[in-house]
Design a protein that fits this description.
single chain, alpha/beta, Rossmann fold, Rna Polymerase Sigma Factor, Chain: A, 3 domains, 7-stranded parallel β-sheet, 4-stranded mixed β-sheet, 16 helices, 11 strands, about 40% helix, globular
């Protein structure tokens, strides 16, 4: 019997990679639902390959266009996620991938949990801003959660069934991005095209900029704290230019484990899909030239000032994380639109989150989606109104 699969964000880099994995084992899977925002050309190809009967296209213009293209096909086409329960009905989904970027992925992630046996989440913002809401639903519906970020899947694999009290330190690695070796006096003249040239990974523009500032690793530390119920003191970032080691865990029994894999997302996605199943994947041989020269380094605060955010984070779940995510999102968008300079991203971000108006959110726990979305919009508008 084929396993039922749902993919939110099927045309993005994560969704596309999952589709490539599924194509090699088509006889084992039935894709019940795909969603996309604008890339309907790629979506149409995916629909054709897997004979998908349900799709969601959130962009209004693209929704109208795809409805015309598929007008003679027996395919249900929706413009939002309000119809999830109608689409899945009484079917229990075997595997859901939630890879919609930004807070747009929050609502569909929470909506699908009651209907899926297993959910793989590749959406930083959702986990960072709404982990208490997600965790509550996971427990209630006995849904298995798997983190898909290479770092978090690596930690997940390394600690296995260990409790947080069993290890004393968890390290996640960062390549250092395109400016790891750039002289500091040249940072003021960094151009957009340079910031978009990541040395190791092919990613979307937003996360590539986050990688260049190291904000993506600040987010990953917050994610790790929430997912694995850790104190921030047990988490640390190490610069590792080759991106071959993804995580390292030092246990209290004297053992230290590291996890390595090729620099691509196929491996964590493949393993999340075939969790606890003996399934093989072809990969490169171990690169001993890299292992002999791991070159771990501590993070330089002058080069990556956003790392200072880790010193002011509350250990409790709070709305302050939504402030950080939303402020950074707005600033990166402004940089991508060439309205601010590269250095302004970290400079303004650090200034904003220390503002008394936003510090108060450290004491407030997120209660529902509406509260998170409302605050996110407010912070975004506040950032846009700032004069740089």
């Amino acid at each position: 019997m084929k396993k039922k699969v749902v993919i939110f964000g099927s045309t993005g880099s994560i969704g596309k990679t999952l589709i490539d994995v599924l194509k090699k084992d088509k006889k084992s899977f039935d894709i019940l639902l795909l969603s996309a925002n604008k890339n309907i050309n790629r979506l149409l190809k995916q629909v054709k390959i897997f004979k998908v009967k349900n799709i969601i296209v959130t962009n209004q213009n693209k929704f109208k266009k795809i409805k015309l293209i598929l007008r003679n096909k027996k395919i249900n086409i929706y413009n939002n996620f309000e119809s999830i329960n109608k689409i899945v009905q009484n079917k229990k989904i075997d595997y859901t991938m939630s890879s919609i970027s930004g807070l747009e992925g929050l609502k569909p992630t929470l909506e699908i949990i009651p209907y899926t046996k297993k959910i793989a989440i590749a959406n930083k913002e959702t986990i960072i801003c709404a982990w208490p809401l997600i965790q509550k639903k996971l427990i209630k519906h006995k849904t298995i959660f798997i983190p898909v970020d290479s770092e978090h899947f690596s930690i997940y694999s390394l600690i296995n069934s260990s409790k947080s009290k069993d290890f004393e330190k968890v390290f996640i690695t960062a390549s250092g991005g395109p400016f790891k070796n750039l002289p500091l006096n040249k940072f003021s003249s960094i151009k957009l095209n340079s910031a978009l040239k990541h040395p190791n990974w092919k990613m979307g523009k937003k996360i590539t900029i986050d990688s260049s500032t190291l904000m993506n690793k600040v987010f990953e530390i917050i994610e790790a704290k929430k997912i694995f119920n850790l104190d921030y003191k047990k988490l640390e970032i190490l610069i590792h230019p080759k991106s071959y080691v993804h995580a390292m865990v030092k246990f209290k029994n004297g053992l230290t484990k590291i996890l390595i894999h090729d620099t691509n997302m196929i491996i964590p996605i493949f393993n999340s899909l075939y969790l606890n199943h003996e399934k093989k994947i072809l990969t490169k041989n171990i690169d001993f030239s890299i292992l002999n020269n791991l070159n771990f380094e501590k993070v330089d605060e002058k080069r990556f000032p956003v790392i200072k955010i880790l010193d002011i984070l509350p250990n409790n779940h709070s709305l302050f994380e939504t402030v950080i995510v939303s402020a950074n999102d707005a600033l990166v968008k402004m940089f991508l639109n060439k309205k601010i300079k590269f250095l302004d991203i970290s400079k303004i971000l650090l200034k904003v989150i220390k503002n008394k108006e936003f510090i108060q959110y450290k004491r407030l726990k997120p209660k529902n989606i509406g509260e998170i979305i409302k605050l996110s919009k407010y912070v975004s508008l506040k950032i846009q109104s700032l004069s740089v």
